[in-house]
């Protein structure tokens, strides 16, 4: 098939408000000089006294918000789920009020254009928007088509579009990917394509709403590296909502914290993380803002608390290297009692109730997804299943549930071959909490939702009444018993989803990416619930996760899968100690581990050993009697 | 990681992949016209063989892909063939089964009917598997003068089908974990659909709204026209295919009108 370019110059178009199309800079890097010509102090965003409620809703999502962002800034917006962060971002290209209607009060100017009188399309060359889910925002099926899409809509000449698409792909490190199918890319690559697709228009302001939420740590690192380069080298102004602060704290120039629709803090990162404040969750519970603090900051705050020493914001460490430098003078001689010793993992557990034996699986013989996987699970363990996106983690979990049929003789549950058990027999023993809780709801009422699993197993009415009441208490949803599951907040829907599994008292509960789309505090709450389950019922928890802090804080054991093969089965400490394994599996090491490892190396024979526990690390240093510089 | 659906575009390097979308669409329409215009088994056999040749040689589809995409319809066609062969009246007894006469006319008609359905499904598979929906949409705009907003709506509908299929599979798996057993019968299927509908609707609306925001943010719809950096164009091979198909359709319907071949089989009363 032959292809021909079909140009429709903008001059022939009738929409006059798009006159800026011809004023775009000549390259992505030229944004620096353009920023320079506009003056470093020019405002990219100017919001004054903005309040907003979605159409048909009485409650305001934004309340009297004022915010100015200068050209060249890198702003991180933090806050509990439901505080209005994403809504705020939708003002920045006029999606509110033009696409999403509602009651908007106050003045908003973006790139010196008032949003009330400027169409969304008119911001296309000035504001680039990148959302959480690359699957939902990518329109085309081929990389080149996606990157060219915006400029084609702007009626740029074909030659210029192709040049700019190459430049944008090169900038995000995807040079030569133009002909690739979107379906063949990893999550990180897809998100980089989304960024390239807006960069092609050379925007002055890039707005990102949790762009790494669905990515593994390796994908996340790719995105953050691109953003840093874009901000530093091209001078692009970046405003981003993101929960992964450990990797961002030292890259951003400013932090804005939101709570219940208002801005409660706006300042430099060191100031932001030097003081604990309180915010409120969607369910109106109080959430400490430290839930979003980088671990390096938590460590410094903990150390100063332990020594009752005030901490000046100016010396607050924002990354591992700074934390090590900060803590180094505090480390004294060994106290004679190391606080942590690495315990080798018992590979064979006699009490194992689930055994996976030489499991191989693939939809097509030539393309195995899992190869020769062998491990066992004992009662009451919390096990993390880690690996890159597409490594086979979810497939393994689905085989355990018989969602995909496992080969005979490869998975044994209480001595019975899972391949020969019915779906109901398996679901009585193993619960599976899907990533999206909405997928699992089958009734119109919270109470019915929890009762459903018991009803289909013919429990008596009395037993159902008792068990559902007990489980509603455990997950703290009793007050919503008559509500529709879909009317609950995301955190509540997650808990309901867990409750529907919990009511059957399964021996194993599989959690598929429990932290995706949730802030750290909410993930902690969920894991707290899991820990209570383990205590009460000796339930084994298998969590599929990329969140290394979650693994470090909660997992007794980690399994690492890479390209369908089980690379590691052991203690999380041992996993994080193996740098080659971490790289192979696309994981990152939690900051606390890196800090403790660096301090241990700097003070051989001293009180510090590599650890995953922040409390243990702080205690060891505090007890050692060193003196702060 | 899930198995991809057979009725989904996959990039390739075959002769058919290199044809422009409108030529392939013309081929599909011509095959359908020929299939619907022929009620005689030998003609349908010829058409089926030609489409199979196209699938395996010209489009280089794998046997398993064809099997996965058409087996269900194949089974339905086979059932159709058996039922019609056993039940339709005729005049010439070809053979008997357990004393039941099988008429040559009914067997001929049943085979033609079954192959017609299979051929149309198979040719649709060839078309969908080798045609990028986006290129089809662009061809509609640049060659057929369809407004690009409408063409893109069509493209996005096609683009989103596999996503919805995946979503339904996930919802089905999630609900199976809850102990929901797949229902049989019409009432059961209606109940099942109701259970899927809410989560599917919530998920689809969220995705659709995200897609709209992503498109608007990149100036989609801002101008009455837009640039296409790569618009497919009909090549000499495309012209040849279109001409051949047009000639075949004209020849067949001309032959029918002039009475050189039978038009439609009419069952003779017993």
Uncertain stretches of 5 or more adjacent residues of chain B: none
Task: Note the gap between the termini of chain B.
Answer: 58 Å
Biggest interface found: A-B, 87 and 64 residues
Helical content band of chain B: 55-70%
Number of strands of chain A: 23
The overall strand count of chain B is: 3
Helix content of chain A: 25-40%
Q: Please identify the structural class of chain B as seen in this structure.
A: mainly alpha
CATH homologous group name of the largest domain in chain A: P-loop containing nucleotide triphosphate hydrolases
Spatial shape of chain A: globular
Give descriptors for this structure:
heterodimer; A: 629 residues; alpha/beta; Rossmann fold; 6-stranded mixed β-sheet; 22 helices; 20% strand; globular; B: mainly alpha; two-stranded antiparallel ribbon; 9 helices
Description:
The complex is a heterodimer of chains A (629) and B (270). Chain A folds into three domains: 10-292, Rossmann fold (3-Layer(aba) Sandwich); 295-342 and 592-624, no CATH class; 354-570, P-loop containing nucleotide triphosphate hydrolases (Rossmann fold, 3-Layer(aba) Sandwich). Residues 11-22, 31-37 and 338-348 of chain A have low confidence and may be disordered. Helix content of chain A is 34%, strand content 20%. The termini of chain A are far apart. Chain A is built from 22 helices and 23 strands. With 629 residues, chain A is an alpha/beta fold. Chain A is globular, with a radius of gyration of 26 Å. By secondary structure, chain B is mostly helical. Chain B has two domains: 15-143 and 232-270, no CATH class; 165-229, no CATH class. In chain B, 69% of the residues lie in helices and 6% in strands. Chain B contains nine helices and three strands; from the N terminus they run H-H-H-H-E-E-H-H-H-H-E-H. Chain B has helices at residues 15-18, 21-37, 41-58, 63-87, 104-130, 133-142, 148-177, 185-217, 236-258, and strands at 93-97, 100-103, 228-233. Chain B has a two-stranded antiparallel ribbon. In chain B, helix 2 runs antiparallel to helix 5 and helix 7 (148-177) packs across helix 8 (185-217). The mean pLDDT of chain B is 86. Classes of the chains: A alpha/beta (629), B mainly alpha (270). The interface between A and B is large, with 87 and 64 residues.
């Amino acid at each position: 098939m032959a292809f021909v370019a079909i140009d429709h110059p903008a001059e022939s178009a009738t929409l006059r408000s798009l006159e800026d199309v011809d004023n775009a800079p000549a390259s992505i890097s030229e944004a620096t000089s353009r920023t320079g010509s506009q003056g470093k102090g020019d405002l990219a965003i100017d919001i004054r006294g903005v309040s907003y409620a979605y159409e048909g809703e009485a409650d305001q999502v934004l309340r009297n918000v004022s915010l100015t962002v200068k050209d060249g800034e890198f702003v991180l917006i933090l806050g509990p789920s439901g505080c209005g962060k994403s809504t705020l971002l939708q003002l920045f290209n006029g999606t509110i009020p033009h696409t999403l209607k509602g009651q908007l009060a106050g003045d908003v100017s973006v790139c010196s254009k008032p949003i009330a009188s400027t169409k969304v399309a008119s911001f296309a060359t000035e504001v680039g928007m990148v959302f959480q889910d690359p699957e939902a925002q990518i329109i085309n099926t081929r990389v080149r088509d996606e990157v060219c899409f915006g400029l084609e809509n702007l009626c740029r000449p074909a030659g210029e579009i192709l040049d700019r698409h190459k430049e944008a792909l090169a900038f995000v490190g995807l040079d030569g990917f133009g002909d690739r199918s979107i379906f063949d890319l990893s999550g990180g690559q897809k998100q980089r394509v989304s960024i390239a697709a807006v960069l092609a228009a050379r925007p002055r302001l890039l707005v990102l709403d949790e762009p790494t939420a669905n990515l593994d740590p390796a994908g996340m690192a790719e995105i953050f590296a691109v953003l840093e380069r874009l901000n530093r080298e091209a001078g692009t102004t970046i405003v981003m909502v993101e929960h992964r602060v450990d990797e961002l704290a030292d890259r951003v120039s400013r932090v804005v914290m939101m709570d219940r629709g208002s801005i409660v803090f706006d300042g430099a990162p060191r100031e932001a993380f030097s003081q604990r404040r309180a915010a409120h969750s969607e369910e109106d519970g109080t959430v400490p803002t430290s839930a979003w603090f980088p671990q390096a900051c938590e460590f410094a705050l903990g150390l100063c608390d332990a020594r009752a020493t005030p901490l000046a914001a100016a010396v607050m460490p924002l990354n591992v290297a700074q934390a090590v430098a900060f803590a180094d003078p505090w480390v004294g001689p060994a106290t004679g009692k190391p606080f942590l010793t690495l315990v080798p993992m018992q590979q064979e557990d006699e009490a194992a109730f689930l055994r996976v034996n030489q499991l191989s699986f693939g939809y097509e013989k030539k393309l195995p997804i899992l190869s020769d996987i062998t491990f066992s699970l004992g009662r009451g363990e919390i096990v993390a299943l880690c690996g890159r996106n597409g490594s086979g983690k979810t497939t393994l979990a689905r085989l355990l549930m018989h969602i995909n049929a496992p080969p005979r003789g490869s998975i044994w549950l209480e001595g019975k071959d899972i391949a020969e058990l019915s779906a109901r027999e398996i679901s009585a023993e193993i619960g599976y909490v899907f990533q999206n809780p909405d997928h699992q709801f089958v009734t119109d009422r919270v109470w019915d939702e929890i009762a459903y699993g018991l009803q289909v197993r013919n429990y008596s009415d009395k037993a159902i009444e008792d068990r559902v009441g007990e489980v509603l208490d455990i997950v703290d949803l009793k007050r919503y018993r008559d509500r529709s599951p879909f009317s609950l907040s995301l955190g509540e829907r997650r808990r309901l989803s867990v409750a529907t599994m919990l009511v059957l008292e399964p021996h194993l509960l599989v959690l598929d990416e429990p932290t995706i789309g949730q802030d750290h505090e909410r993930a902690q709450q969920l894991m707290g619930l899991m820990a209570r389950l383990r205590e009460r019922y000796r339930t084994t928890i298998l969590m599929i996760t990329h969140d290394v802090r979650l693994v470090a804080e909660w997992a007794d054991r980690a399994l690492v899968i890479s390209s369908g093969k089980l690379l590691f089965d052991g203690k999380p400490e041992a996993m994080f100690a193996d740098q080659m394994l971490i790289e192979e599996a696309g994981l990152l090491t939690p900051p606390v581990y890196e800090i403790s490892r660096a301090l241990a190396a700097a003070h051989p024979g001293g009180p510090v050993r590599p650890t995953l526990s922040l409390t243990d690390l702080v205690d060891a240093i505090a007890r050692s009697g060193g003196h702060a510089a | 990681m899930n198995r991809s659906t057979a009725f989904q575009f996959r990039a390739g390097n075959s002769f058919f992949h290199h044809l422009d979308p409108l030529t392939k669409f013309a081929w599909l329409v011509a095959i359908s016209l020929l299939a619907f215009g022929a009620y005689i088994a030998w003609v349908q056999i010829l058409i089926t063989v030609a489409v199979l040749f196209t699938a395996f040689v010209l489009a280089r589809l794998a046997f398993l892909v064809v099997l996965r995409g058409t087996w269900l319809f194949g089974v339905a066609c086979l059932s159709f063939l058996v039922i019609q062969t056993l039940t339709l009246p005729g005049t010439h007894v070809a053979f008997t089964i357990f004393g039941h006469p099988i008429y040559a006319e009914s067997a001929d008609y049943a085979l033609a009917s079954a192959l017609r359905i299979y051929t149309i499904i198979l040719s649709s598979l060839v078309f969908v598997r080798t045609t990028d929906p986006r290129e089809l949409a662009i061809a509609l705009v640049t060659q057929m003068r369809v407004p690009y907003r409408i063409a893109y709506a069509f493209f996005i509908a096609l683009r989103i089908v596999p996503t919805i299929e995946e979503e339904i599979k996930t919802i089905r798996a999630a609900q199976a974990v809850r102990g929901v057993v797949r229902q049989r019968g019409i009432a059961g299927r209606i109940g099942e659909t109701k259970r899927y509908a809410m989560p599917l609707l919530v998920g689809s609306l969220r995705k659709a709204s995200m897609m709209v925001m992503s498109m608007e943010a990149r100036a989609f719809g801002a101008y009455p026209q837009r640039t296409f950096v790569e618009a497919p164009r009909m090549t000499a091979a495309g012209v040849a295919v279109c001409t051949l198909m047009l000639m075949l359709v004209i020849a067949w319907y001309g032959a029918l009108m002039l009475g050189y071949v039978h038009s439609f089989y009419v069952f003779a009363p017993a």
